[in-house]
Design brief:
Layout lengths: L27 H11 L5 H22 L3 E2 L11 H5 L2 E6 L16 E9 L5 H11 L7 E2 L1 E4 L1 H7 E3 L8 H21 L4 E6 L8 H10 L3 H16 L7 E6 L18 H6 L5 E5 L20 E7 L9 H11 L8 E5 L14 H19 L2
Parallel strand pairs: 1-4, 3-6, 5-7, 7-8, 8-9, 9-10, 10-11
Antiparallel strand pairs: 2-3
Length: about 375
């Protein structure tokens, strides 16, 4: 009898001991094309053609690096989160007075606001993007991984100007949850079996600065924890059993800088004990992320934790022995069988990208794969 070697997504044990967060550095050809489109020199369709050519090339490079989970590099986006959120009905982009407070640099000034009832539409451009990516992946030896921002990001970053939500938080949350439930089902219907929610909102709980920011928004820590947990759990509660949904928790990633620091301790019981995701991608690449002790709050045998021990912010390859030692340290709090390895974040959360070369990027991803094979044997 022939053996079926195709990848089967099992939410209780993902086969990917080496993985990636998602975004990849934009190639020079793609950067040039986006600038030409901005200047009116080429059409939207011409840009899309170049974009798809670059995705196709870089899908092959991901395969060559040994990755099983393949992304489109987020090549149709300017931002890791705003593009998806602006694709929701009732959400628009705008320019606030100041950018997010990254350390040592300033990103472009941009944000989002909610102006009407939040809905997900079947015309959302990310659906077409996923279809193209999925056409490049055979689902036998590799699988297409779709990344989208967590619903918490609209709640946190979206300025609420919709009359239907004034003094009606319940309506706001309910509509946001419904939009995400429909989005998840739509991706599934197109063949998506691996979806990742990206989320910087949890970093608010990791530092005094973040907690003070919550108070300025008018919420207590307890209220915000409840809201964030509800948005995640209810958004994914109807996911099909053969669909893997993970979440990446980040402290900011722009041009190799960050905006948040602090360990997971303050929100650990919620993150590790209450969220219903299948897996967590966590930053652990430097002292900003704290220690591994919070992993002791993992109560489920079917939850895997991907350790972001390899930084995407600098080109130098971390010594294998160091990474293996840190994996061993983490295994003192969570069984090695539930641990995975990845870079701590993507390489280009915005189109500007981090401060390393494309070759550095591929070296990093191959490094992750090689170490995982030595630690887990696959």
């Amino acid at each position: 009898m022939a053996v079926d070697n195709s990848i089967q997504i099992n939410p209780t044990l993902t086969p990917f001991f080496s993985d990636q967060v998602g975004s990849l550095l934009r190639s020079e050809a793609l950067k040039a094309a986006r600038l030409q489109k901005q200047n009116g020199e080429i059409s939207e369709q011409q840009l899309r053609t170049i974009q798809q050519q670059e995705i196709k090339s870089h899908v092959q490079k991901q395969k060559d690096a040994g990755l099983k989970a393949i992304t489109d590099g987020e090549y149709s986006r300017a931002w890791w989160h705003f593009d998806f959120l602006e694709g929701l009905n009732g959400v628009i982009g705008y320019e606030p007075d100041s950018p997010l407070p990254f350390k040592g640099t300033k990103p472009k000034v941009h944000s989002i606001k909610v102006t009407d009832k939040i809905r997900f539409s079947q015309t959302h451009p990310f659906l077409q993007d996923f279809e193209f990516l999925n056409s490049l992946v055979d689902n036998k030896n590799h699988i297409a991984k779709q990344t989208i921002p967590s619903p918490n990001m609209l709640f946190l970053r979206g300025k609420n100007e919709a009359s239907c939500y004034q003094n009606n938080l319940e309506a706001y949350l309910s509509d946001l949850i419904q939009a995400y439930q429909e989005a998840i089902q739509s991706f599934y219907d197109l063949g998506c079996r691996y979806l990742q929610l990206d989320d910087t909102a949890w970093a608010l709980f990791f530092s005094e600065t973040g907690i003070n920011g919550l108070e300025e928004l008018g919420y207590t820590v307890e209220q915000t924890l409840d809201i964030f947990t509800r948005l995640i759990n209810e958004s994914i509660k109807n996911k099909p059993s053969d669909m893997l949904i993970t979440m990446h928790i980040c402290r900011g990633n722009f041009r190799s800088t960050y905006f948040g620091s602090g360990g997971y301790d303050a929100a650990a019981e919620t993150i590790f004990g209450e969220l219903k995701v299948d897996g967590l991608f966590l930053e652990f690449d430097d002292e900003r992320s704290g220690g591994f002790e919070p992993l002791k709050y993992v109560q489920r045998k079917d939850l895997f934790v991907t350790l972001g021990l390899v930084t995407s912010k600098t080109p130098e390859l971390e010594p294998k022995a160091l990474i293996k030692k840190r994996i061993e340290e983490a295994s003192q709090y969570l069984d090695l069988a539930q641990l995975r390895l990845s870079p701590q974040c993507g390489f280009a959360s915005t189109e500007e990208g981090n401060l390393l070369s494309e070759q550095d990027q591929w070296n990093k991803l191959k490094h992750v794969v090689d170490i995982a094979e030595e630690v887990w044997g696959q």
